[in-house]
Design brief:
elongated; mainly alpha; 126 residues; single chain; two-stranded antiparallel ribbon; 3 helices
Amino acid sequence: MSKPVNGFLAGDGSFFEDEPECQRYEAMKELETLCDTHSINFENFMATLNAWHNPIERYYDADDKSKTHQVGKPVKFEPKDGYYEPGDDIPGDDEPFLPAKGDHPDFASGDKDAPGFLEQQIRRHK
């Protein structure tokens, strides 16, 4: 027998009686996806987040009351020797990109005798 229900559905169809529970679930799923895409162990991340929640909460509260906010702003850094290193934050749209250390200059016209990408020999690890 079917009956009417009141509640909230998460994006994946999970049902919750309370809206805050649903919002927390969806935020947790988003964090899990971010951890997966950045090769971070989700369980360890959540354990650290829960262990550090008091200082993190104080930081967010203090930032909210500050004149200049730091939360949500990208971390600025000075690249070493004018090059980005693996793992460095990518600058925002308003900042110019510096070349990566292994970048080669672009040529106006390519060497007509150079093999194309699909024609190049594939190297195998030995």
